[in-house]
Design brief:
This protein is mainly beta and about 100 residues long. It has one domain. Helix content is about 15%, strand content about 40%. The radius of gyration is 13 Å and the shape is globular.
């Protein structure tokens, strides 16, 4: 089975079929931060999948995990990664862009 990928400015998304992914990040990188989502410039491969974004919800940090179907799932950071993983990703995965 051949896997196709859709490359965006912030991540690569695996496509299951000819349809577009269920969710695509905003394309305008100059837009002000409205949703509180901070997109990674480099995805982090964690134990739950590819981590592509973070957001703060009611004072709790959540990690956006891109599924093979293109769906974006949000989980609490404590369930997704260790504090060392978070430190490593914060140094290499973000460059000040948010949406």
């Amino acid at each position: 089975m051949s896997v196709r990928y859709l490359r965006t400015p912030r991540a690569a998304v695996a496509l299951d079929g000819p349809a577009a992914p269920a969710y695509a990040p905003p394309q305008d990188t100059a837009a002000p931060c409205r949703s509180g989502i901070r997109w990674a410039t480099r995805a982090f491969q964690g134990r739950l999948g590819h981590y592509v974004a973070v957001k703060l919800v009611h004072h709790a940090l959540q990690v956006g995990i891109r599924r093979p179907t293109g769906q974006l799932d949000w989980v609490p950071v404590e369930l997704a990664m260790t504090s060392r993983d978070a430190d490593d990703w914060s140094r290499t995965g973000f460059q000040g862009r948010s949406s």
